[in-house]
């Protein structure tokens, strides 16, 4: 039996019988006979054919030799945000970016597997050389979706002042993805467990609707204050007046992350209208939306009208080629193995998907020992050098007492 694909129901299989006959089975179909007698070849011939086929991916595109061996870059997460240790990541490192700074809202989250280069998700507008303000993330159970979201959020807040970005984090199923993030000064709200507490759903809808209305009101008032002909066109114009010295309070970008949005739409289909409004007006109001899900099963609620505004797509491992194609345009995400947690593809606009591996930040942290330095270069090897060789002391364990010693 020869199987192509990782999942039982969606795999393509070829079955060879003892008499030399063979049949195949397309995904989710029954076996059919494809030839009466199989071709016979020696092991040497089979080896030569296998070597010639090794340079091709399952989608039929030829692979560059460098991509066949995926690099493992040792750069730690804290190095990527400019620190030599986690202890250095403090409020003193927060930056206030100018509005034209290319690094504003440019979030490091992992490495490209082909080159080892640092991967960024730039959630600025395309006109500002970003990937766009709104996107979608899909990843089945065990794919590393929660870890990706945690990495993305922590990278953003580690480098950016709360006056420039705020967070609204929601999890319909009440998981632990955003556990502890309510303590961040950037966080406006964390709403979880909505599947069991229906009033939280309506409350979140009211909060988001109110925030969109509030920002539009602020732009109208700011227009009158600076002597403009009417309301300011958006937060970009608002920031220009602030940088010129206008007495206007900060208006941070609001990054809205909705985990398990497909299940939310199954239970509350009216939310599609709110998501559509955010996608349409959020660009100028700087309310950015990331919709994350394990599956695209939305209970019949059509999300196609959102898709033109979802300019970046991320696919970790999916359960079917259909879902992979729906998100990134290729079936590649289905063929990510169970052992590749945190591996996925990022597609921006009409560009080809780029394969990456996200950082794992939920493991135990080992602070550097005294006398140990890290190079601290983002994208570098992250190697450690010691000023002095370690000193090893021999010791002998004390004997184990069968009875407690008398005092």
Structure overview:
This is ESX-1 secretion system protein eccCa1. Pfam families: FtsK_SpoIIIE (PF01580). This protein is of the alpha/beta class and 407 residues long. It has two domains: 2-54, no CATH class; 77-358, P-loop containing nucleotide triphosphate hydrolases (Rossmann fold, 3-Layer(aba) Sandwich), CATH 3.40.50. 24% of the residues lie in helices and 20% in strands. It contains eight helices and 16 strands. It has a ten-stranded mixed β-sheet with strand order 6-5-14-13-12-7-11-10-8-9. It has a four-stranded antiparallel β-sheet with strand order 1-2-3-4, with no helix packed on it. Strand 5 and strand 6 form a beta hairpin. Helix 4 (198-225) runs parallel beside helix 7. It starts with a strand and ends in a 21-residue tail after the last strand. The relative contact order is 0.15. The model is unreliable at 59-69 and 374-402 (pLDDT under 50).
Poorly predicted ranges: 59-69, 374-402
Structural class: alpha/beta
Indicate the proportion of strand residues: 15-25%
The main pleated sheet reads as: 10 strands, mixed
Q: What's the CATH H-level superfamily name of the largest domain?
A: P-loop containing nucleotide triphosphate hydrolases
Instruction: Give the total of domains.
Output: 2
Total DSSP E strands: 16
What is the first-to-last residue Cα distance?
72 Å
* CATH fold assignment of the largest domain: Rossmann fold
CATH architectural type of the largest domain: 3-Layer(aba) Sandwich
Instruction: Round the Cα radius of gyration to an integer and report it.
Output: 26 Å
Strand order of the largest sheet: 6-5-14-13-12-7-11-10-8-9
| Overall pLDDT score | 82
Q: Helix content range of the residues, please?
A: 10-25%
Identify the CATH class of the largest domain: Alpha Beta
How many separate helices? Answer: 8
How would you sum up the global shape? globular
* SSE pattern: EEEEHHEEEHEEHHEHHEEHEEEE
């Amino acid at each position: 039996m020869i199987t192509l694909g990782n999942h039982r129901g969606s795999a393509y299989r070829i079955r060879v019988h003892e008499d030399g006959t063979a049949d195949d089975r397309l995904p989710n179909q029954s076996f059919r006979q494809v030839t009466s007698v199989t071709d016979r070849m020696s092991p040497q011939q089979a080896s030569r054919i296998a070597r010639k086929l090794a340079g091709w991916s399952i989608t039929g595109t030829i692979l560059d030799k460098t991509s066949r061996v995926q690099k493992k870059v040792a750069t730690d997460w804290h190095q990527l945000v400019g620190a030599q240790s986690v202890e250095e990541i403090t409020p003193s490192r927060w930056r206030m970016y100018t509005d034209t700074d290319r690094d504003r809202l440019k979030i490091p989250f992992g490495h490209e597997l082909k080159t080892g280069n640092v991967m960024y998700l730039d959630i600025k507008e395309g006109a500002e050389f970003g990937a766009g303000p709104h996107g979608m993330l899909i990843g089945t159970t065990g794919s590393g979706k929660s870890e990706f979201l945690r990495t993305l959020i922590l990278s953003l807040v580690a480098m950016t002042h709360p006056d420039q970005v705020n967070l609204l984090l929601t999890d319909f199923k009440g998981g632990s993805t955003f556990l502890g993030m309510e303590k961040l000064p950037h966080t406006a709200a964390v709403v979880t467990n909505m599947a069991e507490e229906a009033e939280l759903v309506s409350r979140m809808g009211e909060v988001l609707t109110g925030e969109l209305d509030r920002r539009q009101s602020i732009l109208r008032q700011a227009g009158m204050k600076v002597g403009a002909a009417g309301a300011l066109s958006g937060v970009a114009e608002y920031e220009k007046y602030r940088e010129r010295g206008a007495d206007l309070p900060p208006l941070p970008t609001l990054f809205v992350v909705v985990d398990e949005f497909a299940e939310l739409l199954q239970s509350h289909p009216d939310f599609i209208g709110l998501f559509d409004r955010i996608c349409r007006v959020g660009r100028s109001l700087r309310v950015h939306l990331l919709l994350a899900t394990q599956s695209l099963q939305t209970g019949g609620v059509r999300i196609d009208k959102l898709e033109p505004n979802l300019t970046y797509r991320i696919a970790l491992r999916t359960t079917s080629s259909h879902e992979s194609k729906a998100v990134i345009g290729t079936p590649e995400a289905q063929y990510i193995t169970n052992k590749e947690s945190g591996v996925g593809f990022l597609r921006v606009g009409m560009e080809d998907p780029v394969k990456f591996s996200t950082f794992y930040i939920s493991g135990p942290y080992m602070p550097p020992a005294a006398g140990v330095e890290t190079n601290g270069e983002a994208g570098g090897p992250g190697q450690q050098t010691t000023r002095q060789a370690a000193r090893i002391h021999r010791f002998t364990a004390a004997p184990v007492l069968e009875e407690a010693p008398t005092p």
